Amino acid sequence: MGLRARLLLAFLAPTWVLLAVAGFFGYQFSRNLLEAELGASLSAIAATVSSQISAERLLSIAEGDDKGEGSRTWRSLSRELTEAKGAAGAQRVFAFDREGRVRLDIGGGLPAMASVPELLRDGTELDEVWSGKRSASQVLFEGNDGRLYKTGYAPLWRDGKVAGAIGVEGSAEFFGPLRTLARSFFGLMGVTLLVLAAAALVTARALSVPLERLVAAATRIGTGDLTTKVAPERTVEIGTLAGQLESMREALDSRDRQLKMMLGGVAHEVKNPLGGIELFAGLLHEELSSVNPSSADALEHTARIRRELDYLKRIVDDFLAFAREQKMAKSPFAVSGWLQTAVDVLTGDARQKNVTLVLQTDDATVEGDFNLLTSALVNLVKNAVQASPEGKTVKLHGRVEHGRYLVEVSDEGLGIAGELQARIFEPFFTTREKGTGLGLPLARKLVEAHHGTLTLESVPGKTTFRLALPMDPRAQPP
Q1: pTM reported for the whole predicted model
Q2: Which of 50, 302, 365, 476 has the fewest CB atoms within 10 Å around its CB?
């Protein structure tokens, strides 16, 4: 997980959890508090109605008393309960006996002596009522109008005993504002999270972008780019790190330049006397040939001297090429001609070893320094020819792959041991007696200067070098 994602998560996760928990418990606390308050209010209204109604008269209502105009008692009590219902703003007021039979129902519509089904729901609350206490239903229920209601109960006394009860139903109207409050809270929570997310993104960017620049700078230094300076940073801690990284780059660059100067100087100093030795060795060979042509041993010695001089000159040339800063003259060129040039250069060496060069290529266009890339490719093909046994084949295969041009140089030699593959691109590392150990490092250096890659894959019987270069987008077909 990236630094930005971590910072965003660190900002938002605890805040979201805290706000969600606070909102949930706040909502539940408010709801429970308002429910308890509604229940207490309804039971208080029921107690008031109970105190104003004669239990004797109420319980005297029998089945059929509500038919037609109703009995005098029924009409009188109905009027009283209707006034009480209106004064309290209740939805329903009803009176019932201990057997759960309604005697009078204002707002509910049940006939006299009918069973009240809602009482089955509130058995526990009614036990408290029968013991002489006020009570309210613990569960909200939904009415026919889709709104939530609650019922408050109070005992109806006759001769000091609880003979029945008064029930008062009221709407839980507080849920509307409570839901509005909850929606407002969650809306505020969303806005808060968005603000925090923006702050987290700004903070994460302020931290991650400088660090990403330092990572890029460290990567450049690690890949050998010691010339690009590390930009200073404004943040104190990151700025200190950038300063130290820049000091390290300068020290490495200075050391690298000194080593290259020393290597180039040594190579130049050696190259001058080598030229003189080569000249005089040639003259000596000519004199021996003209004075005493039959002296085969002397002629062989001079020939050996000249071969060794050629080897020393090649070492010096490799040293100079590796130490020299390569100046590139980039231009688009066809890949087929580039590969064919490398094959033509190594055709003579391949014939001497009885090795066949096979070229297979998909034509395309890349941009780079033709001569430097040819030098790198010739190094790869030359290594492949030298590693191939007589009668084998060295294959060059070029193709377009994932927006880059990939060249594979494969031979059928013994392969490179696994422990040596990691060191094959190290300067001066070689497995050949007459090798300089600079051919492959120089090839990789030239390829990477063109923003390409050079990798190796080797198993017994097959070794493949893969050279990948970015293609020239201006010259590709749409």
Answers
A1: 0.45
A2: 476
